[in-house]
Design a protein that fits this description.
Layout lengths: L25 H9 L4 E5 L2 E4 L8 E5 L3 H9 L6 E7 L2 E7 L5 E4 L3 E6 L2 H4 L7
Antiparallel strand pairs: 1-7, 2-6, 3-5, 4-5, 4-7
Length: 127
């Protein structure tokens, strides 16, 4: 039979390459994610714990990215903090609804507690 036909022709010539100045610098964005005043990193290798009797006080979502998990808690009024864990190729996001009291050492999981407005603001209100 006939052999393979002619391969792909010459591709498009070198177009205008984007100037480096138009690209966002990676250092600025990585600093923003590291320093987030809305959340307090409680544990870099641990899961969040509310009280032991109330084990179901969170929403568990699989396949979310870290920014998605972060924003879901940030914009959810009842969310007290979130936990993000990666197991193999699966990622798990837990949005907590009760006060996070402690953390339990578990590799691959990180626990973030939402900082209260008083902790964030320059002046604390007295009740």
């Amino acid at each position: 039979g006939p052999g393979p036909g002619p391969g792909p022709g010459p591709g498009p010539g070198p177009g205008p390459s984007p100037s480096p100045s138009s690209l966002p610098s990676p250092s600025a964005s990585s600093i923003a994610t590291l320093y987030n005043p809305s959340f307090q990193l409680l544990s870099t290798s641990g899961v969040c714990r509310t009280d032991d009797q109330n084990k179901g006080n969170f929403d568990e979502l699989w396949g979310k990215s870290y920014p998605e998990c972060h924003d879901l808690c940030l914009f959810s009024r009842g969310c007290t903090g979130f936990e993000y864990a990666v197991k193999g190729k699966a990622s798990r996001c837990k949005l907590f609804k009760g006060p996070i009291l402690s953390t339990l050492p578990v590799g691959g999981a990180r626990c973030y507690k939402k900082a209260s407005k008083t902790e964030l603001g320059p002046h604390k209100k007295r009740l």
